[in-house]
């Protein structure tokens, strides 16, 4: 294919991806009650799933303070068109999230023909695993990281006479930032997989710089969580587990590459 043909193919991949985003965004726009009351505003109510699980855990360990009977903040809108604008922008964001697997699949369809046969074989299932990790990270951010951040930041006071009246934009920004940050952080194993395939990282390098990686992970956890040690630890632990999983992935990639090279050398030796 010529350069113009490649651009034409890329254009149609982008168009199909944009259509999928618009379809999901439109569906989210008309599902306003579920989108806002059940999904987005869920972490702002004490009956949210995460708070109920923490309460049950607190009762199990004999610490009733983990139960949250009421939230310490009120969400409000201060602009005339604020709710309409937020409705449209939030629906578009939800459309992007829901269309992510299909969008990545379209991008992968454009990249895949340029790979060598063994590269296509080794990357089989990439769309599936990228989508699964994205979904797991999104769920972790929505059910764990975001509620902890919202509950800590919105209920924190320097004086009891000051009420926390949180702007809708600020609340949504915290929720989306936490959820999407975790979604992309959970892609670490796939990133390491492709980097190991390209020979840019190895299990030995990752083990050598494990201490540096822990520092970086702690910094990332501190950025995407409130200044609360328990919240930072809850976010840090799964990222550390993903890093250890990535080390094993890099080791397997290196071992498979070595076995394939040895098999090719043995085959060439037999022919000669």
From TrEMBL:
Pfam families: TatC (PF00902). The chain crosses the membrane at residues 12-31, 84-105, 126-150, 170-196, 208-227, 233-253. It comes from the Bacteria. It is a multi-pass membrane protein. One of its GO terms (biological process) is intracellular protein transmembrane transport. GO terms for cellular component: TAT protein transport complex. It is found in: Cell membrane; Membrane. Keywords: Cell membrane, Membrane, Protein transport, Translocation, Transmembrane, Transmembrane helix, Transport. One of its GO terms (molecular function) is proton motive force dependent protein transmembrane transporter activity. Its main location: membrane. HAMAP family: TatC (MF_00902). Belongs to the TatC family. Forms a complex with TatA. Part of the twin-arginine translocation (Tat) system that transports large folded proteins containing a characteristic twin-arginine motif in their signal peptide across membranes. NCBIfam families: tatC (TIGR00945). This is Sec-independent protein translocase protein TatC. The gene is tatC.
């Amino acid at each position: 294919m010529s350069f113009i043909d490649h651009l034409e193919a890329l254009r149609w991949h982008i168009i199909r991806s944009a259509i999928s985003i618009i379809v999901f965004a439109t569906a989210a726009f008309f599902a306003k009650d579920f989108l806002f009351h059940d999904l987005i505003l869920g972490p702002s109510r004490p009956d949210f799933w995460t708070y109920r699980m923490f309460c049950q855990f607190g009762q199990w360990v004999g610490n009733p303070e983990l139960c949250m009977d009421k939230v310490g903040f009120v969400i409000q809108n201060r602009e005339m068109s604020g709710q309409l604008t937020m409705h449209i922008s939030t629906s578009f964001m939800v459309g992007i999230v829901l269309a992510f697997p299909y969008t990545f699949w379209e991008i992968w369809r454009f990249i895949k023909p340029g790979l060598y046969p063994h590269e296509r074989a080794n990357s089989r299932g990439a769309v599936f695993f990228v989508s699964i990790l994205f979904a797991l990270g999104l769920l972790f951010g929505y059910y764990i990281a975001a509620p902890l951040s919202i509950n800590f930041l919105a209920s924190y006071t320097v004086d009891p006479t000051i009420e926390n009246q949180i702007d809708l934009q600020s609340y949504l920004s915290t929720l989306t930032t936490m959820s999407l940050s975790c979604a992309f952080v959970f892609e670490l194993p796939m990133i390491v997989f492709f980097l190991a395939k390209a020979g840019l990282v190895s299990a030995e390098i990752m083990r050598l710089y494990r201490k540096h990686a822990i520092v970086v992970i702690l910094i990332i956890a501190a950025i995407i969580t409130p200044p609360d040690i328990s919240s930072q630890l809850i976010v840090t632990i799964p990222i550390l587990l993903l890093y250890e999983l990535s080390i094993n992935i890099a080791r397997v990639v290196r071992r498979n590459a070595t076995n394939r090279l040895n098999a090719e050398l043995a085959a060439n030796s037999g022919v000669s």
